[in-house]
Task: inverse folding
């Protein structure tokens, strides 16, 4: 049996969760010791939800980056999306808009219940973009993923039983930092403090389940 620590950025975090389910279902000789996710859209991305009408321009609260970036993203997605963008939505991941009682069983997140049992999960969020009195499912966010989504606030403990959260005023990636002419180290994938937190999660993975659940997960 091999022990593995998975680290996923953005949708890589969702892929890590899916891979864990498949490994367990196929009884593979691999034990996932921990999962660390950076800017993962566990409850959808802001651009994805914007494209499919779950968020709108008013939700940008006049923020220029939010307006320009999401409008441009929607135009590109309308021409070139092959499916991933529409899966980064509240409807696909959380079955939002699906009437009860179906909504309790539908949605990608609900389908993953039980597959992360016994696995500590660390959730890193970037909060570079902020506004006053904004929709908490958007604000603050890293330019792609909100803290709400990165921290999987809409995902129950049946799906992610043990989680630890961390945040810093960082962007989603160099791609976003370039858009606002920010230093590349403002990107969560290139930031020293974020990397140290990833290493800490791996180093502490064996003892993580003995510590309190949801540490750091209160804004």
Result:
């Amino acid at each position: 049996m091999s022990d593995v620590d998975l680290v996923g950025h953005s949708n890589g975090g969702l892929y890590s969760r899916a891979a864990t389910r498949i490994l367990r279902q196929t009884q593979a000789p691999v034990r996932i010791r921990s999962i660390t996710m950076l800017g993962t859209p566990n409850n959808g991305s802001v651009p994805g939800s914007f494209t499919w009408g779950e968020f709108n321009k008013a939700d940008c609260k006049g923020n220029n980056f939010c307006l320009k970036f999401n409008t441009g993203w929607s135009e590109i997605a309308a021409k070139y999306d092959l499916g991933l963008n529409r899966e980064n939505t509240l409807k696909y991941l959380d079955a939002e808009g699906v009437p009860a009682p179906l909504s309790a069983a539908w949605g990608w997140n609900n389908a993953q219940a039980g597959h992360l049992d016994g696995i500590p999960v660390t959730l890193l969020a970037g909060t570079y973009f902020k506004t006053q009195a904004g929709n908490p499912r958007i604000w603050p966010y890293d330019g792609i993923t909100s803290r709400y989504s990165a921290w999987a606030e809409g995902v129950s403990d049946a799906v992610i039983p043990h989680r630890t959260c961390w945040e810093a005023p960082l962007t989603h990636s160099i791609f976003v930092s370039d858009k606002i002419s920010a230093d590349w180290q403002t990107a969560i994938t290139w930031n020293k403090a974020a990397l140290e937190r990833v290493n800490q999660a791996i180093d502490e993975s064996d003892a993580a389940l003995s510590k309190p659940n949801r540490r750091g997960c209160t804004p």
Observations:
- The first strand starts at residue 2 and ends at 9.
- The chain has nine helices and four strands.
- The domain at 2-210 is CATH 3.40.50 (Rossmann fold).
- The beta strands are 2-9, 30-38, 121-126, 163-168.
